[in-house]
Amino acid sequence: MEIEIQPVTQPKAHIEDETKLVFGRQFTDRMFVMEYDSGKGWHSARIQPYAPFTLDPAALVLHYAQEIFEGLKAFRRQDGSIALFRPKDNIRRFNQSASRLCMPPVDEEFFLKALKELIRLESDWVPHSEGTSLYIRPTMIATEAVLGVKPSNKYLCYIILSPVGAYYKGGFKPVKIWIADEFIRSAPGGTGEVKCGGNYAASLLAAKEAAARGFDQVLWLDAVERKYVEEVGSMNICFLYDGKIVTSPLHGTILNGVTRRSILQLATEMGYDIEERAMSVNELLEGAESGRLTEAFGTGTAAVVSPVGQLTYKDRTVTIGNGQMGELTLKLYKALTGIQYGQQPDTHDWVVEI
Ligand SMILES: *Cc1c(COP(=O)(O)O)cnc(C)c1O
Q1: What residue ranges define each of the domains in the chain, with the CATH number in brackets?
Q2: Residue 285: its pLDDT value, please?
Q3: In angstroms, rounded to a whole number, what is the distance separating the alpha carbons of residues 215 and 224?
Q4: Whose C-alpha lies nearest to ligand 1, atom 5?
Q5: For this UniProt entry, which residues form the secretion signal (predicted)?
Q6: pLDDT digit string (tens) for 101-124?
């Protein structure tokens, strides 16, 4: 399929002061769009000026939430070049999400080509200062205008781009986490491992209650026993427990994070043992108190790693380590961002240059 390139007639002003870039608030001049019709497949691929869509009020996505998305970043490297981090992993996961929600797959090679072409055209929008990047948001929505619960016969797939500032501007700030004891995020057989908007809509109330109590994030427990750690907010979670890295196994109720996978690989190479196993909330709280649990951190594209300083379950609060960012957490952060920004050699073939 050819990609039509449409001209941009009214380019937007860039935010010159890169310390003022706020995540997800500003979008670039162009977006990639393609359309799908049953019987015809994907068609009308184009890179066009960023603009609102016209959607029929009956469009299926607006009623039954047939929607998926991805999140990855492009990094400006020291020599000025631009690189993507493991984009094929994101595109593969996009198709896995599509399959679970009865949406059509994209051609993975074509999608990567379209993404690279979009970023090439928007390369001016990839910020230059340390820790900044261009956030990439591929999305697919059901657009057939008909009420009735069924898979849509029409879809829109698009990619938008947003320049983002450094996540850790004022230094690393460990987060305070509220362990949800009333709400759950996903259940076996559900859509926990799907990157879909519906999961997030269902998580808002717990996050709102956590914020009202002064917490930064929610840690979710499993839906069956309400006992085992799953993940936090929009991140996977890892613990340094008895000197080993412990993280929840991928059994369908948590997102299979690209950052999680990369961090586990780097930690293995640093000589750490990895245990993908269920960690109970009790083991976690007691571990923090006894000193067996020395570090905890979330992993995700936005923050890379996010150190956890404190955990609260019902009325019990524990501090992890000394409440500051752990040594290993920092080491893993540096190792991964070093590869992304080209300061460290990419021995895993994770980086794709634009
Ligand atoms: C996207 C996401 C993650 C992190 O995945 P990465 O590929 O590392 O960015 C973790 N949990 C949830 C619920 C997510 O949506």
Answers
A1: 4-164 (3.30.470.10), 175-340 (3.20.10.10)
A2: 98
A3: 25
A4: 257
A5: none
A6: 999 999 999 999 999 999 999 999
